[in-house]
Amino acid sequence: MLALSAPNFVLVQGVIIGLGYGLLAVGLVLIYRTNRVLNFAQGQVGVIAAVFLVKLTADFKFEYWFALVLSIGLAAAVGALSELVLRRLFNRPRVLVMVATIGLSQVLLALTALPFIRPHNLYKPVPVPFDLSFTLGTTIFSPGEVLTLIVAPIVAVTLALAVRSTSWGLNMRAMSENADSARLSGVWIRRTSTLTWTVAGALSAFTAILNAPGQTSALTEVLSPDLLLFALTAALVGAMINLTVAFVAGIGVGVLYELLQWNISSTANQQLVLFIVLLVVLLVRVRALRKDSRSAERSTWQHGAVRVRATVDALRNRISVSGMWAAACGAAILPLLLNVGNNYLFSQVCIYAVIALSLTILTGWAGQVSLGQFGLVAVGAVMAAHLGASVPLPLLLLFAGAVTALVAIIVGLPALRLPGLFLAVTTLAFAIFMQEAVLATPCWTVPGIHKTLCTGLPNPASTLIGRPSLFGLGLHSERAFAWFSLGILLLSILAVRTWRDKGVARRLIAVRDNELGAAAMGIPVLRTKLLAFGLSGFMAGYAGVCLAFATERFSTATFDPTISFIIISMVVIGGLGSVAGAVLGALYLEGLPALFGANPTIQFLTSGLGLIAFILYLPGGLGELLHRSADALTLGVRYVQERWTTHGPLGSPPGAATTPVPAVPGAETLTPEVVES
Amino acid sequence: MLILGSHSVRRDITLVIEDVIERYTEGKRRQTGGKIPALQVHNLDFYYGTNQVLFDLNLEVEEGEMVALLGTNGAGKSTLLRAVSGLSHPHRGVIRLFGANATYLEPEQIIAEGVALLVGGKMTFSGLTVRDNLRIGGHTLRRDRARSAQALEEAMDAFPALKARLDQPAGTLSGGEQQMLALARVMMTRPRLLLIDELALGLAPMTVDDLMAMVRRINEEGTTVILVEQSVNRAISLADRCFFLERGEIRFDGPTVELLARDDLLRPVFLGTAASGLR
Predict the structure, then answer these.
(1) Which of A362, A417, A540, A590 is deepest in the core (most CB within 10 A)?
(2) Which residue range forms the structural domain that includes residue A256?
(3) Across the interface, which of B108, B122, B132 has its CB nearest the CB of A183?
(4) In this structure, are A328 and A234 located in the same domain?
(5) Are B139 and A187 within 8 A, CB to CB?
(6) Chain A / chain B CB contacts < 8 angstroms
(7) Does the residue B15 lie in any domain?
(8) What number is the ipTM of this complex?
(9) What is the DSSP pairing of strand B224-228 with strand B241-246?
(10) Can you give the CATH number for the domain in which B255 is found?
(11) Where are the beta strands (DSSP E) in A446-547?
């Protein structure tokens, strides 16, 4: 067992960091509890306040306390405004709202750059109202840290009291338990919700202002994956309900982090221990949580895909199939017309589409949210780096897929017991762990066996691999590789469509929507969930191999965990659960910005604001748009066909049609049914 | 696009005209000395998505009455109560509460009008203590501290079983006690019209009898009560008048005793057993 010991000042340092995590976790819990929304923008709201505080004190020479009140008020207002914008999404699938908050966070980041918020001197430190400091051991604790030690507990206790005894707190608790019942007693739940976001905004302001003094520049994106992971873990330990537990857990995470830093020298091992501890803590909590079944959370998180109502008939099928063929043929010709740079981009889009498809299975069908799909891609990439030169490509793709599937199943194991956010946290932890520990360590010694294993990138800073050949055909040119990627994408689409039509998807969706019901119908629930993880991991794995060969030179930074958020956005923009949508989403988020990067319209559309606008006004995603246009086209074709049968070929007078034209093919099999696509 | 647009414009104009006509006839009726009933429902159409649930529904309930709402599963009883309490809004028609139009009011406003809905088995906040549940019940009285404290006292006096468990989470109460808590909570605002959706849901017969006695007492104190019931027997013992709903339409409106004679209505519902067993 690992023995951890540290002098007092390390512990105090940990508490100070932990207070920040705790406050952030409390904000996350507050909003999750009220609206069942995982708010990615929670940290960013406060950054506006911190930046504004610097602006007021440094540029306008305001009194500190007055400026403080103004900036906290600003954050509260921003919080309320966010709620008003996102409100219409609250009865939509949770993943959709989550992605909307990712967009919101980007918009808020852009807001901090506005001239009346941004200070002239960006590197001006956030002011501190007093000059108190103390020394412990060899470390001097700055006034900013003293401020945190004093203010954070006060804020937390005040909030706890408010939740317990004010009318807002009571309403909020009642609303989170049973919104309809609260309304029937006259509680205005929308006002309560807005008020909650306002409080969360103010809380976020405290978090950012307390954390800011240590930072060199206030204009940063706060909710980095690490910070998000720690705050989410703390929030989950509090079961996304209990504010006090979440706050204390946040402090615990901070202390643990500092302890590991002090006791373990290598970053990789620190990350490993942290990852394992987080998993164990979550698993232990899963046990405690399973008692109250949290059916509400289950229903809201698993309520996943958008149902597309489409009349399925022969003509409609023929149109969608020929549309697919046309798109595939067009895509096959495209590499001939593109230059080297664009062919490279073409391969990238294809590979990202495969990754998005892998997430479609997991999130769209199985209803499990993964925040670390790119970690699985990294597994595939590592395999390519090590075995690319020796193993033939088809074999490598299959092997990498199988290994990644295994990894995905292991990462998914904790989520078997409790769905929803748990997988989100373990996958996020996994993605960070992959980047910072596995990829960054070329070789490591297994503790018990004393053998050296090389699982990381051969050169973490810059690994160069050569492209292999496929059945004797070289893939060295960008054009050849573009065709190869397209082939992989088409095969993947074919596979996913087959799974969709042959009942794999049906089983996954059944388990997602009603686990007990599915089990009662004889569906093996456990195996079905594992199947979802496995299939998703398999696709992510071979996509990783392709991505490694496509980029040829990559480093640990290539596998930044934030890319996983972009992939979730792709799946959502494409339309949750839609196969064609995943491809379109990849094209939209990966292709458009690279192709028309300088065009302001495209920049807007693919920016955070565009993302929010997209989700607000087209919640079914691009997939739904595609469906609707196919429906419209079917109607048009049928109209022309009917005219043809009654009036004969174009131009001929009525009755001139001599040969009886057969009735519309398949018209007698018009069976409207709801398909999930 | 144009055709779709013109359709919805036409529909809107029709709705406006119907509304005006309804207002006119209602005014006329009152001028000629008609009473103001507790609840009036005129020409109500209700859809869930594209599914029509209520079809041109009309009913009136006088003040002080106790009325039973009977019908098969999926007949639209609960939907009707949801529409009256404001949880969902109808597509067409008018709902009047004590004479005032309440069709598009939100539930938060309806409760202030003195109309309360109790949904069987779905009302308590199981994670909150009994006291907090009651505090939510007194939410509309929060500006008047004295009155809200008094309402809390009255609720505890009326339901002594709850008094001993004030600081216990409501989820730990038995089903009957939870229902009692819901009733206590609803009664705190002293509603003039009480809508009850399946009071007996999942409860033991003994408990149901106790609760029914409480409802009867509430009615005797002057509150109008509309009660959704599955059992004809209980409906007879409680309510003099009843409505029978089938597939979103009112098929019977009159004294409950007369409903027993309507074998054609009851047989498909109760397979004849309840009706024949009673006679």
Answers:
(1) A540
(2) 12-263
(3) B108
(4) no
(5) yes
(6) 68
(7) no
(8) 0.86
(9) unpaired
(10) 3.40.50.300
(11) 452-453, 463-464, 469-470, 473-474
